[in-house]
């Protein structure tokens, strides 16, 4: 199996492994109660059962399919596209990690700079000016005008 | 209260300056979201949801409803002018809409779409008023077993008709159900699967999950593809008038599209998309000019667009009358109602008539605003596509973050946003539809609640789920939908096999 089918096969297997861990945790920590007074474990076990069936069906569907990648390739990015994706993800993670520490405004300048540089590379000063202008505009609209609460940081 | 009295009362609510402004801004913002490829109505509504919390309930809901039907309209503009569907329900419109543009009839196509959307929206609003009241009255007799059957059946049917195969959709559905179990159990108060993280005990919120799955995943995909600006065509005001023949051909298509869209909209699933395809198929079947389809047939634009708008409106029926959302977009509306302290369901008409009638009447007003404003503003909408991608993508990312954080002011939700963004990216790469996952996340707690209440009330009698008439009917219909298609396919295959075998048998006999 190749392409998307192989990816779905792996997903199905991971789904089955996840179900095993989830049910183990459920049995360890939650009560089933009685049929007339069902406990907190009942619905999770039903949901996990359904996920196990769906995962097995997903695996079966891929195994039954003819060989090759008839559904198309599972195209993870390569070359410059890979770097763009990695940098975008890093920028988002950096924002989430930094925002509680330094506040939304400072963290969003970092995120904006990363995204602007990734989408359309330009001179450093242009990226910085664009990032600061965008972060400041969004901050003014949401925090000052609409009174939306955002991470304030130490200030 | 009769439907007419209700509508009059609703108009008095919708006509207040703040509600008119909310409908206008919602419709404008929705149109902008519909125009921009990649940012669909679901992610767009999730992004602005927190802003509506600071408004009175009826005003916030009017703004959200305006965004919903505004997005339906905006999506068709780019389909017609640029062969780019702004959102998934506009895919069918581009088949003949773009061909009309190539023949120099872009303005006429846009007017036919706007008029059709208005006609369908208006007729559907009356339908919603009548059917919602009837269903709400019936809803009073619903108990936990009926609601359990309805919510579970809704999810199963959606899995059956979602994009891709049944196992893929069922996988997304069950994953959503499992994720919905995270957090404090509403019945016993026990903390589940939070692994000691206090913030996780409040569960996975719909907004960061939906924005992550649809918004963040889309941003990463846009960056990966290397987004560029689009050369957009503009339309002059004098080009907007359709000919008499085009109008004459549009009217029956609007009527058929409205009926099709209205009834499909009430059902679980991607109603807007299904209704447009169904309407296109009907138009092609009944048309005397079948050869024009695919080359700029007026009916191919008028019917699907009316169906799309009617489905968007009638989708409110199960939400308003029974409190059950059958699409992720309606789940966002449900989330807004719950946060605002409004309980959708049979009692909504009694307890909050201003919300029911006000939102209904505002849809009518909003559709009128879209009709008056959007045609002259077509050039403005198209110019949105000229925004440099580095600005557009960065702004969408910031809006996503603001939307996800501000619902509960929780940094945990930002991590949820990222996690669901990554999940959405991988699911998109594998062609697994994410719609059932979002709906399962919302319906999961409802299903669990109704399941446990049913067992409490029946003292553990499992037969309660199938012995009551309404729930029995729901299960029978669901079973027919789930197993009907595979059985029909098997029978067809067998018949084809028989047909192939019979000439051979004849030869052997000879």
Characterise the protein shown here.
Chain A is an all-alpha fold and 155 residues long. Chain A is 72% helix and 3% strand. Chain A has a two-stranded antiparallel sheet. In chain A, helix 3 (79-102) runs antiparallel to helix 4 (104-119). Chain B has 510 residues and is an all-alpha fold. Chain B is 74% helix and 1% strand. Chain B is globular. The model of chain B has no long low-confidence stretch (mean pLDDT 83). Chains A and B meet through helix 1, strand 2, helix 2, helix 3 and helix 4 of A and helix 8, helix 9, helix 18, helix 19 and helix 20 of B.
TL;DR of this structure?
The complex is a heterodimer of chains A (155) and B (510). Chain A is mostly helical.
Mean pLDDT of chain B: 83
* Straight-line distance between termini of chain B: 77 Å
Structural class of chain A: mainly alpha
Overall 3D geometry of chain A?
A: flat
Taking the sheet with the most strands of chain B, its summary is: 2 strands, antiparallel
């Amino acid at each position: 199996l190749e392409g998307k089918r192989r990816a779905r096969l792996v997903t199905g297997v991971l789904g089955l492994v996840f179900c095993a861990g989830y049910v183990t945790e459920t049995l360890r920590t939650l009560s089933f109660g009685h049929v007339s007074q069902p406990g907190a474990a009942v619905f999770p076990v039903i949901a996990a059962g359904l996920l196990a069936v769906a995962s097995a069906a997903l695996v079966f569907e891929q195994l039954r399919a003819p060989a090759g990648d008839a559904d198309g390739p599972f195209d993870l990015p390569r070359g410059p596209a890979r770097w763009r994706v990695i940098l975008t993800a890093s920028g988002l993670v950096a924002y989430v990690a930094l925002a509680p520490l330094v506040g939304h405004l400072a963290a969003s300048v970092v995120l904006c700079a990363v995204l602007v540089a990734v989408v359309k590379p330009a001179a450093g000063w242009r990226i910085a000016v664009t990032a600061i202008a965008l972060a400041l505009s969004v901050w003014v609209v949401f925090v000052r005008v609409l009174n939306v609460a955002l991470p304030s940081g130490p200030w | 209260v009769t439907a007419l009295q209700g509508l009059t009362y609703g108009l008095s609510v919708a006509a207040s300056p703040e509600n008119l402004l909310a409908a206008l801004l919602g419709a404008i913002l929705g149109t902008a979201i519909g125009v921009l490829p990649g940012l669909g109505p679901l992610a767009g509504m999730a992004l602005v949801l927190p802003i509506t919390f600071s408004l009175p309930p009826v005003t916030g809901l009017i703004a959200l409803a305006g965004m919903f039907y505004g997005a339906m309209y905006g999506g068709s503009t780019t389909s017609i002018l640029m062969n780019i569907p702004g959102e998934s329900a506009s895919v069918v419109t581009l088949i003949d809409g773009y061909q009309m543009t190539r023949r120099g009839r872009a303005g006429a196509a846009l007017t036919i779409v706007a008029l059709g959307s208005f006609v369908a929206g208006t007729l559907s609003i009356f339908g919603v008023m009548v059917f919602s009241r009837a269903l709400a009255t019936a809803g009073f007799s619903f108990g936990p077993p009926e609601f359990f059957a309805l919510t579970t059946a809704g999810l199963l049917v959606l899995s059956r008709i979602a994009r891709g195969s049944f196992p893929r959709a069922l996988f997304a559905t069950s994953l959503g159900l499992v994720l919905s179990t995270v957090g404090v159990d509403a019945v016993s108060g026990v903390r589940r699967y939070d692994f000691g993280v206090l913030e996780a005990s409040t569960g996975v919120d719909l907004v960061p999950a939906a924005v992550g799955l649809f918004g963040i995943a889309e941003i990463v995909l846009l960056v990966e593809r290397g987004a560029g600006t689009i050369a957009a065509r503009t339309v002059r005001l004098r080009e907007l008038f359709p000919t008499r023949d085009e109008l004459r051909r549009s009217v029956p298509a609007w009527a058929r599209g409205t009926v099709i869209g209205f009834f499909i909209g009430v059902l679980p699933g991607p109603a807007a998309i299904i209704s447009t395809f169904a309407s296109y198929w009907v138009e092609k079947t009944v048309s005397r000019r079948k050869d024009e389809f695919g080359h700029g047939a007026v009916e191919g634009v008028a019917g699907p667009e009316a169906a799309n708008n009617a489905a968007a409106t009638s989708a409110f029926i199960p939400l308003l009358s029974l409190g059950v959302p059958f699409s992720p977009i309606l789940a966002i509306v449900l989330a807004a109602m719950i946060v605002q302290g409004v309980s959708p369901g049979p009692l909504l008409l009694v307890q909050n008539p201003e919300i029911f009638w006000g939102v209904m009447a505002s849809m009518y007003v909003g559709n009128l605003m879209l009709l008056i404003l959007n045609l002259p503003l077509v050039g403005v909408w198209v110019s949105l596509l000229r925004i440099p991608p580095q600005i557009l993508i960065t702004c969408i990312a910031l809006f996503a973050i603001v939307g996800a954080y501000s619902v509960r002011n929780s940094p945990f939700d930002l991590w949820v946003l990222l996690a669901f963004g990554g999940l959405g990216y991988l699911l998109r790469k594998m062609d697994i539809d994410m719609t059932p996952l979002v709906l399962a996340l919302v319906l999961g707690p409802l299903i669990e609640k109704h399941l446990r209440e049913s067992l409490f009330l029946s003292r553990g009698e499992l037969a309660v789920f199938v012995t009551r008439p309404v729930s029995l009917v729901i299960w029978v219909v669901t079973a027919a939908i789930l197993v009907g298609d595979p059985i029909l396919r098997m029978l067809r295959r067998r018949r084809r096999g028989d047909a192939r075998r019979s000439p051979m048998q004849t030869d052997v006999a000879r």
